[in-house]
Design brief:
This protein is of the alpha+beta class and 230 residues long. It is built from 6 helices and 9 strands. The strands form 3 sheets. Strands 2-1-5-3-4 form a 5-stranded mixed sheet, sandwiched between helices. It binds iron/sulfur cluster (SF4) (2 copies) and FE2/S2 (inorganic) cluster (FES). One iron/sulfur cluster (SF4) binds next to helix 3.
Length: 230
């Protein structure tokens, strides 16, 4: 079992475990948006989980969601440089985010609010201009709503959908124009979506949300464990 030092605290990790999960398990918070513990390959898109590592006297900056621990590794999660870089990454993520917390059903569990607090930032950047795009809200599905203006392109819903053996939600376009979309932008309800609702469960923002509390219970009554409608 490798032993590592995180911010001076000695912690035992599992072989091959990624730094992020070791830290979180030990009560050391590292901001993260796109990491999925079960995923074999890390997406590495948000860059919020940066840490400094030191191995054999060599120091470098890595994304903690993709870097496995090594015996004797020293990990620094809270340096001035790391915090500056995380702040910039977060401000960039928020430039095209539609901030509407007062009306957002996810406001009590929103990961963006948690990250902003940890970085001592407001949700709206003081430095960068906001450029929220007019993207249509998909409200046709009987159980869930998708508001792409609140999507941070973390890819978690895509990973979940693919994990169920489907690909109804995916990345579309590139660069600033990138969005999460169904094929050809049709409503989710017009795909063969089986309403497993895993995408909603994993979404860290108000982009995918249940129309009503109890939607998951309703879905469980009409969907079998393989994701087929009963
Ligand atoms: S997703 Fe979070 S930051 Fe965005 S509007 Fe909802 S509560 Fe606010
Ligand atoms: S819809 Fe949610 S889970 Fe999917 S990419 Fe956007 S923010 Fe992430
Ligand atoms: S959580 Fe590591 S890059 Fe997003």
């Amino acid at each position: 079992m490798p032993s590592v030092l995180i911010d001076g605290k000695e912690i035992m990790a599992n072989p091959g475990e990624k730094i992020l999960w070791v830290a979180l398990r030990s009560g050391i918070y590292i901001p993260h948006l796109c990491a999925i513990e079960e995923a074999e390959l890390s997406f590495g898109g948000c860059r919020l989980c940066l840490v400094d590592i030191e191995v054999d006297g060599k120091r470098e900056m890595v994304t903690s969601c993709s870097e496995p621990v090594k015996e004797g590794m020293k990990i620094y999660t809270n340096t001035e440089k790391i915090n500056r870089m995380r702040q910039t990454a977060f401000e960039l993520i928020m430039t095209d985010h539609y901030i509407d917390c007062g009306n957002c059903v996810k406001k009590k569990e929103c990961e963006l609010i948690k990250i902003a607090a940890s970085l001592k930032l407001k949700l709206r950047s003081k430095r960068l201009r906001s450029i929220v795009r007019e993207l249509p809200v998909d409200d046709f599905h009987p159980l869930i709503t998708f508001d792409p203006r609140k999507c941070v392109k973390c890819g978690k819903c895509v990973w979940m959908c693919q994990g169920m053996g489907k690909s109804f939600l995916n990345f579309a376009y590139r660069g600033f124009g990138m969005i999460i979309s169904t094929f050809d932008g049709i409503p989710l309800s017009s795909t063969e979506c089986k309403s497993c609702l895993e995408c909603v469960m994993v979404c860290p923002t108000g982009a995918l949300y249940f129309k009503e509390t109890g939607a998951r219970e309703v879905a469980q009554k009409i969907i079998d464990p393989e994701g087929n409608r009963l």
